[in-house]
Design brief:
The protein starts with a helix and ends in a 6-residue tail after the last helix. The protein has helices spanning 3-9, 23-34, 53-60, 76-84, 90-94, 118-137, 151-159, 190-193, and strands spanning 45-50, 97-104, 141-145, 165-166, 170-174. α1 (3-9) crosses α6 (118-137) and α2 (23-34) packs antiparallel against α6. The chain is an alpha+beta fold. The protein is globular, with a radius of gyration of 18 Å. Strands 1, 2, 3, 4 and 5 form a 5-stranded antiparallel sheet that branches. The longest helix is centred in the middle third of the chain and has 20 residues, at 118-137. The protein is built from 8 helices and 5 strands; from the N terminus they run ααβαααβαβαββα. The structure holds flavin mononucleotide (FMN). Flavin mononucleotide binds next to α4 and β3.
Length: 199
């Protein structure tokens, strides 16, 4: 798939077919993730990759769906909340692969002196985006779930992750169901978002 077609095709998909992803495709996606830029060229990453359905179902138990009271969405964001909130667990259960891209944090997150704490987190997200784009190029649907509240600690305990590692997102992959719901996208264009040479 041509690069800009990949960019335009990528959408967050939260409903998947019951279908395995070939191992070679997964290895190409993982390799694309690992080619991402990283601060100080450290690549302090360890990717735990789930393809075993029983393990995926166990992992899904640690992620809670959110209630959503919106009945008649009036904005693309509300439409997204309505689709996404109740599916935070089922999108993992239905998926064929979940990648947990753990990164090791060198500097404290909250160092007010230099903000270096954002570097490793930023690199981890470059990796995540490469995974999402490569998955799209492979004809897959993808979505991220950000671990919140008790989830980071519970997932770490479940996997016995060593201290000092953090999880920016769960990267969830699978073949999109034909009728998978996607909200309208918020318009972000060169015309309405870009300032040339001055604000
Ligand atoms: C930092 C970040 C956090 C996100 N967290 C979640 C999440 O926890 N659960 C989820 O279903 N989608 C999550 N998303 C996906 C967004 O909801 C999605 O990108 C947005 O609605 C636009 O839709 P699109 O990806 O189809 O363009 C996240 C995306 C980003 C970049």
């Amino acid at each position: 798939m041509e690069f800009y077609e990949v960019i335009n095709k990528r959408r967050s998909i939260r409903q998947f077919e019951d279908r395995e992803i070939p191992r070679e495709a997964l290895e190409r996606i993982l390799d694309a993730g690992l080619k991402a830029p990283s601060s100080d060229h450290q690549r302090r990453w360890e990717l735990v990759t789930f393809t075993d359905k029983a393990a995926i179902l166990e992992l899904a138990k640690l992620v809670r769906p959110y209630p959503c009271r919106i009945r008649e969405p009036k904005t693309p964001q509300q439409e997204m909340f309505q689709i996404a909130y109740p599916r935070q667990r089922t999108m993992i259960q239905e998926s064929a692969c979940v990648i947990l891209p753990y990164f090791r944090q060198k500097y404290a997150f909250d160092n007010p002196k230099n903000d270096y704490g954002l570097m490793d987190y930023g690199g981890a997200w470059a990796l995540v985006e490469n995974l999402l784009l490569a998955a799209t190029a492979e004809g897959l649907g993808s979505v991220v779930h950000i671990p919140v509240k008790k989830e980071p600690e519970q997932i770490k305990a479940f996997l016995k992750i060593p201290d000092g590692y953090y999880l920016p997102a769960l990267v969830i992959l699978g073949y999109a169901r034909k009728d998978a719901l996607v909200p309208a996208q918020v318009k972000a264009t060169v015309e309405n978002k870009v300032h040339w040479n001055k604000w």
